[in-house]
């Protein structure tokens, strides 16, 4: 009798356990079912459809169009060091790293470091990497606060602190990479940064190549004064508020990708040479540009401390021309909006070898508009460091002109 009662209790317990397990599984399934739509809606309603993972993935897709192998690294440059007489430029607790891509090359190839312009990132050189890597060890970086690099809080309050933000972080990256004796190329705002770097650390730079560089406009440019005098107060306040093009795209939220697509199609859909991007290249480039410009605002906030409204420099490189110590090649697109005559003006006070080369069928993005001619200009500028089996590089390549 007792054995029958015990058996009955065990049976009831087993039934209860199965019912509890079934109830738990049902609840979990219901929770999963209800969370899936919520997750989908969160993704769909995200104001800016981007993330750090999107930036990394878009870079990989763009570089997948290349034939040359490469290694991508995030080079840790440590916390922001204190600079004598200047306030800390970023929180010492924030991670600081430089997104770096190094391309496969011959063992004895000279090193060429590429630095992008304002609001851009290293991937915009994607049309040049394969050709340049045949003769250089090419290293392309995203400046601190842009592209795939870390984006610490921008705390600079004046021109000196802002220049130090970029120049010092580049020097910390150079130390971490243990580089010296390299050719240094900067485009547009990147030209301004690498010029400031070469003025401060000339011992590490073999040759300087400035592509459509900003920063050589006179500090008291009459046009700038006229603009300052007559421009609307609203425009002035917008500039001083550090209102950037990136903020516009961020503000458009889910409509931002369409605006970027319209821009890339208009600017890079076809080139003065008659060439055009493939459908895949255009798609990858649009995606890459979008994700790199809508990420957290950081380096872009430098604009009001380095420039007046427009491309007019607060601290002109013209004043530093007599102190130039590194041989320099200036490269401009034939239709570049940056005036090559500013370089001519600067060169009058330089005591080092210099040259000014103009690339035909090209504008401000000469490396995108006419890659072969741009690459020829870079090879010619670096002729003293490149190995050659013929007379190639001794004379200016066809199509290029000296200013």
From TrEMBL:
Alphabetical list of InterPro entries matching this protein: AB_hydrolase_1, AB_hydrolase_fold, Epox_hydrolase-like
Domain AB hydrolase-1: 110-371
Cellular component, GO annotation: cytoplasm
Alphabetical list of Pfam families matching this protein: Abhydrolase_1
Region (Disordered): 1-20
Keyword Acyltransferase: yes
Family: Belongs to the peptidase S33 family. ABHD4/ABHD5 subfamily.
PANTHER family linked to this entry: PUMMELIG, ISOFORM A (PTHR42886:SF29), RE40534P-RELATED (PTHR42886)
Protein name according to UniProt: 1-acylglycerol-3-phosphate O-acyltransferase
Species for this entry: Lolium multiflorum
